[in-house]
Amino acid sequence: MITLTINGERREVPAAPDTPLLWVLRDDLGLTGTKFGCGVASCGACTVHLDGVPARSCQSFVGDLEGVEITTIEGAADAAAQAIRAAWAELEVPQCGYCQSGQIMSASALLAETPRPTDADIDAAMEGNLCRCASYARIRKAIHRAAEIMEG
Q1: What domains are there in the chain, each with its CATH number?
Q2: Is the full-model pTM beyond 0.70?
Q3: CB of 56 within 8 A of CB of 35?
Q4: CA 114 distance to own-chain centroid
């Protein structure tokens, strides 16, 4: 049994230490907002926060995560995540929506660290988050809009 802290709640999971966090979230805990995309940490669909830092859950092993605060899209509720969600809806960012939880997790971590990001900041923070629909321009615009929302 491995004890993890997920979205502020301690959870015991019957998983081997080398089990990817993605499968524990989706299969054992029913937290399906975190998506499986590639399985090799190249697409960003499975992005979660580990102690506030974006990480690919498909390559994060549960045996390494005891004592780490894990936040999924379901638990992302800080000011940055709320502003990102508002901007995403206002600017109608998603098309198919499959990558959006990973995009939102990366974008909210960026805004939590850099409240007024430049285009270069956004590009660096969002690198590796792939979108099949190529909504990158709307994503960048929404991150800028979320920064405005956070400023009030």
Answers
A1: 2-71 (3.10.20.30), 79-151 (1.10.150.120)
A2: yes
A3: no
A4: 16
